[in-house]
Amino acid sequence: MKPNTQLLHNVWKNSQDLITQKDIALDKFQLDELISSAFSAGPYYFYIVDFFDFSIKYMSPLVEGIHGLNPETTSFQDILDQMHPDDMDFVARAEAKVFDIIGGLGPDKVKKYKTSYCFRFRTADGSYQLFNHQAIILTTDEHGRIAKSLNIHTNLNHLTNKNNFKVSAIGMFGEPSYLNMDVLNDTPAPASSTPALSKREKQIIQLMADGFTSKEIAEKLFIAVNTVKNHRKNIFKKSNCKNVGQLVVRCVMDCLV
Fold it and tell me: Which of 19, 230, 234, 256 is the most buried (most CB within 10 A)?
């Protein structure tokens, strides 16, 4: 059974004042740098979608291994059709919450946020698995309305299969964040907050998630091993986690990075 993706299209239709009505050229940007700013804790792929006509401007070849889709011919609707039918109501509500936040940011700050929430996707073997969705606005028109977005989907099933049904708008470049917003109940958005983790701690968490040892992390970051160990100790204390697996799950679900 296909998901009712019309729920999502209705959200976007109802948010037309925040979506550009013309084709906007893609700004010059460093794709690798943007992808690295998104926390990846498992197999992932990414693509660029144009909200002007919902076309795909770039599709990562990695989509074939994850969804079994041809990257040359995959459409945005093809991606939406991989969502679990039972998760569509949450995803639509999450997108609506995202647009509520974006609408209150101001046109100069739209591109300074990434949004994040989780849902189940159908994978190449036909099973449904939990994924994390992260989106970063790449281009806007002269009024700050959304044009093109970088979407990153990461498989979390090796870490957890339990969704927290929350959405976060994470500030970049020093902007405040709006974390773990409840979209299933009519509760007000939480007050903005500043990240609890430093930039260096976030770098170390990503390397820990990738399986690197303290010695290897020290070599990559050109710092002392003892410095890495002290950072690890502080990270576990701040996050109230006891091991790397628990830390990675918390980072994704609670958007600590």
Answer: 256
